[in-house]
Amino acid sequence: MAEPGANELRLDARIAEMLPLRRTPAGVPIAACGLAHESKQDEGGIARDVSVELQAVAVGELASVLAGASPGMRIRATGFLAAKSLRSRMPVLHLSKIEFLEGNENGFQAQVEVQEKG
User: Fold this and answer.
1) What is the CA radius of gyration of the chain?
2) In the Cβ-directed half-sphere of 34, how many Cα atoms lie within 13 Å?
3) Which of 109 and 63 is assigned the larger pLDDT?
4) Residue 22: CB partners within 8 Å, gap ≥ 6?
5) 32-54: b (≥16 Cβ within 10 Å) or e
6) The pLDDT of residue 115 is above 60
7) pTM reported for the whole predicted model
8) Residue 18 has pLDDT above 90, yes or no
9) Stretch 87-101: mean pLDDT, rounded?
C-alpha cells in the first residue's frame, strides 16, 4: 500500500451543477456537484487566464450541507483528489470543507467542516 503523502486542494469555485442527494446501501448521504473555477494566475511572471471544471463529492454530514447549495453559488472547496473509479482515472475532488463565499462583502461567511470521527 502507498505511504501517505500530501494531497490537498483548495479551490474557489462556482457550483455549476448539483446532482440529487443519494444514499449508499448503508444509508450514508452522498452529494455530487460540478465546480467551475476562473481566475488570473501568475506563471513565470506572466498573468494567465485560468479556467477549469471539476467534479466534487461530499459524503456524510457534509453531503447534506452541499445538497442545500444551488447552482451559481460561490464556494471555497477544500479536499483531496482521487480517481473517479477503477475504470475512470478522471480526478474527483472529495470535499472535507466547504466555505460559502456568498455575502462576504457584508462581513458574513458560512463555513462548514466535518471532522472524521476516529
Assistant:
1) 15
2) 8
3) 63
4) 29, 30, 31
5) bbbbeeeeeeeeeeeeeeeeeeb
6) no
7) 0.83
8) yes
9) 96
Q: Do 102 and 92 meet the contact criterion of CB atoms below 8 Å apart? A: no
Question: Is-contact 32 57, C-beta < 8 A?
Answer: yes
Question: Is there a contact between 81 and 52 (Cβ–Cβ < 8 Å)?
Answer: no
Cell matching residue 77: 472547496
What's the confidence (pLDDT) of residue 31? 98
**What span, in angstroms and rounded, lies between the C-alpha atoms of 88 and 86?**
6
Of 7, 5, 31, 6, the closest CA to residue 18 belongs to: 31
Q: Position of cell 457534509?
A: 62
Helix (H) or strand (E) holding 93: strand 91-100
The span from the CA of 107 to the CA of 103, in Å, is 7
Residue with cell 473509479: 85
